[in-house]
Amino acid sequence: MSHAIHDSRYSWLRLAITLIIATVANVGMWAVIVVMPAIEDQFGAGRAEAAMPYTLAMIGFALGNFWMGQLVDRLGVTKALIGAATLSAVSYLLATWAPSIAMLSIAHLFLGLGASIGFGPLIADISHWFMKRRGIAVGLVASGNYLSGAIWPTLLSGILERDGWQQVYLTLAIMTLLVVIPLSLLLRRQVPAEAHTTAASAAQIKARSVGISPRALQYILGLAGISCCVAMSMPQVHIVSYCVGLGYGPTVGAEMLSLMLFGGVISRIISGLVADQLGGVLTVLIGSVLQCLALFLFLPYDGMVSLYLISLLFGLSQGGIVPGYALVVREYMPPKEAGARVGFVMMMTIMGMALGGWMSGWIYDVTGNYQLAFVNGILWNGLNIGILLFLLSRSRPRSRRQEVPA
Questions:
Q1: How many Cβ atoms sit within 10 Å of the Cβ of residue 129?
Q2: Running DSSP on this structure, what letter comes out for residue 248?
């Protein structure tokens, strides 16, 4: 029986293995943030030039979510993970040999590609193994991205101070190979064909209720993903600079960013539990409304204690939005295309983060403060809410009969 694979003991074991892989694979997205000051010193670079490796890593991470998702659909998650881990390790190594910021940036483009396997593609893969608890499963795997950002910078700070950033990257290259490749071999089991057939029927029923083709829905969700993440990026990308401008210093800003990330982990888990009861669209809508309210709070309050509290509230509000989009894709689209479809929407959310980070900086340069940047985020957030209300209005209420295994 294909039903036996869903929410089984094996499913939970696979989830635990996947979360460990995600926490290690995703560090390629965060590593450059930790070593950026050291890179700036070594190459005598300006702030914008030193940020180029991060920018290219994010572009690689965005594109990789789509491309790696397609690889998972075609080759299976194990082969894709082995290839991505090897690419990440080679990229870490090449970065340590880079003679210039330009070459270092190119190495980080490939590092972002390799690291991307730990986000959208793993989310898509785990979604096949759960039915009743798919929301919490997706939320936990997605939290691996935030856990990676919260855990590894602290663990690697000692190596950075003692031996320099090149040693940090060599350590990460070895760790990626030693952890990701052996664990990926434990994920070789594939979903039975009949389970995919059943899932396709369920998705078709829901898609018909909306009356939008899978391709059109994918693009609509992509636009929603961009708009939610332009809003999300304002505090996440600029909170440290915002605190420096207010006179609180970078350490306070870094602590607020950590609070956001840990709040995001909690949010992804809670949102997963909520999604199992309410479905993906309504869960994302709730998160988007809460994110909008949190953004509003940044406008009147800029005291240090207030900002700590608002940063935590912001993290708790927004963490479940991006994985929620993956759930919407799985609810409405064919399962055999899950890797590519989820990957596309995840790619658009990351592009939204990149666009929003730049846009907020540009608004600051023009106006001399971040107030209008917060307003810009609120307006983009409103577009996201509008799209979700449109999808919700066209969807039939969830019924027991429609909840077919997926």
A1: 23
A2: S
Q: What contacts 24+ positions apart, CB below 8 Å, involve 103-110?
A: 104/39, 104/43, 104/53, 105/52, 105/53, 105/55, 105/56, 106/56, 107/53, 108/32, 108/53, 108/54, 108/56, 108/57, 108/60, 109/56, 109/57, 109/59, 109/60, 110/60
CB 3 within 8 A of CB 132: no
Give the pLDDT confidence of 292-305 residue by residue, as tens digits.
999 999 999 889 99
pLDDT tens per residue, range 377-387: 999 999 999 99
pLDDT tens track for 151-166: 887 777 778 778 888 9
pLDDT in tens, 221-237: 999 999 999 999 888 87
The CA-atom distances, in angstroms, between 195 and each of 121, 130, 200 are: 19, 11, 9
The reported pLDDT for the residue numbered 382 is 95
Alpha carbon 207 to its chain centroid, in Å, reads: 25
Task: Provide the whole-model pTM.
Answer: 0.81
Contacts of 238 (CB under 8 A, 6+ apart): 357, 360, 361, 364, 370, 373
CB within 8 A of 313, min separation 6: which ones? 263, 294, 297
pLDDT at residue number 204: 61
Q: What is the mean pLDDT of residues 80-88?
A: 96
Burial degree of 366 (CB within 10 A; 0-12, 13-18, 19+)? exposed
Which pLDDT score, from 0 to 100, does residue 282 have?
92
- The pLDDT value given to residue 200: 56
Cα(86)–Cα(332) distance, integer angstroms:
33
Give the whole-angstrom CA distance, residue 134 versus residue 276.
7
C-alpha distances (whole Å) from 121 to each of 70, 171, 322 are 8, 25, 13
Place of tokens 């708009």: 227
* Full DSSP string of 70-108: HHHHHH-HHHHHHHHHHHHHHHHHHHHH-SSHHHHHHHH
Identify residue 156 by its one-letter amino acid code: L
Structure confidence at residue 400 (pLDDT): 41
pLDDT digits 0-9 by tens, 10-23: 999 999 999 999 99
Measured distance CA(173)–CA(88) in Å, rounded: 7
Q: For the purposes of burial, counting CB atoms within 10 Å of the CB of 89, is it exposed (0-12), middle (13-18) or buried (19 or more)?
A: buried
Q: DSSP state, 398?
A: P
